[in-house]
Write a sequence for this structure.
């Protein structure tokens, strides 16, 4: 036991908030704190929460579930780097809610709320994995009695951006400069124009379109189908004349229509080059989410509720989940 009272620990925590940025935030709790399990033998062997750090737990209990998603793994590694720079990297058994709040508040002066929230989501996923088993957490390993909670930073709200048709035309023409990807028999400019047309017409999330395969195209039903990565919702969307023609031009012998690499850096580097060629300044840079926002706005202008259908937001009821076919609604 640490021998410190709660008042002493809170006093030390308050003092830590006034320390200069070079001073690392220190873990709280202790052997008698609330984060250690009461189960006999829980501290035995290599899985001792008094010794394992967040990075240890990530590598031991979570990374295998991320498979080969290098982008996601890299995001976790970046978050852990910030954690180790801002704190004294305490063992997970000494991470409490107050330490997480101190970390959040310190980084908010340096990074955007969205970035800080991403770090906290990564930490929460790790802490939940080593937390207690419960119905909503079936893969928990039970190293700590409960996972500490921290409120996410408040996100500033912004109006969705609508990309003008003139700006979209400029991006479409600028695809002439595309020289990547190279794993298809189809020239890169054709693949990028296909991707732009699909984004604009369906407002799909970036990697739901980029990961489409030849088998996802259902010519007999004049459309395409995919399972959304974020919501796991099965989408079946119909072609129109434009998307049908572009899809026919883009399909080759490769499994994926747009054969991007696992490293997404090349993808975004090429997109930035297309933006620059279109004469779009850095301050007016068109992100893929802006095209998604444009698509949603246009469909909502046709009929209220159509934006949610076309964008594939998570279904809320039994009818939506199991009986409603959105393809017919969109086709109409």
């Amino acid at each position: 036991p640490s021998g410190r009272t709660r008042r002493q620990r809170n006093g030390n925590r308050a003092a830590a908030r006034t320390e200069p940025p070079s001073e690392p935030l220190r873990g709280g709790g202790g052997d008698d704190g609330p984060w250690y399990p009461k189960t006999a033998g829980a501290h035995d062997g290599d899985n001792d929460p008094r010794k394992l750090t967040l990075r240890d737990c990530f590598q031991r209990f979570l990374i295998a579930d991320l498979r080969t998603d290098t982008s996601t793994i890299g995001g976790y590694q970046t978050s852990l780097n910030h954690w180790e720079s801002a704190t004294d990297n305490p063992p997970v058994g000494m991470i409490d809610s107050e330490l997480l709040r101190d970390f959040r508040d310190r980084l908010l002066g340096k990074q955007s709320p969205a970035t800080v929230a991403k770090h906290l989501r990564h930490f929460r996923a790790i802490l939940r994995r080593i937390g207690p088993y419960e119905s909503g957490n079936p893969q928990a390993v039970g190293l700590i009695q409960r996972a500490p909670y921290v409120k996410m930073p408040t996100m500033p709200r912004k109006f969705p951006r609508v990309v003008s048709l003139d700006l979209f035309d400029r991006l479409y023409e600028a695809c002439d400069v595309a020289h990547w990807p190279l794993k298809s028999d189809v020239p890169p400019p054709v693949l990028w124009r296909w991707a732009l047309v699909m984004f604009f017409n369906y407002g799909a999330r970036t990697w739901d379109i980029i990961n489409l395969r030849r088998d996802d195209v259902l010519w007999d039903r004049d459309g395409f189908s995919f399972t959304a990565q974020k919501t796991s919702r099965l989408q079946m969307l119909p072609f129109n004349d434009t998307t049908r023609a572009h899809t026919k031009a883009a399909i080759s012998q490769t499994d994926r229509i747009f054969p991007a690499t696992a490293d997404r850096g090349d993808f975004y580097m090429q997109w930035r080059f297309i933006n620059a060629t279109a004469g779009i300044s850095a301050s007016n840079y068109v992100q893929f989410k802006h095209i998604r926002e444009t698509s949603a706005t246009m469909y909502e202008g046709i009929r209220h509720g159509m934006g949610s259908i076309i964008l594939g937001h998570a279904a809320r009821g039994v009818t939506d989940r199991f009986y409603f076919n959105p393809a017919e609604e969109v086709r109409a």
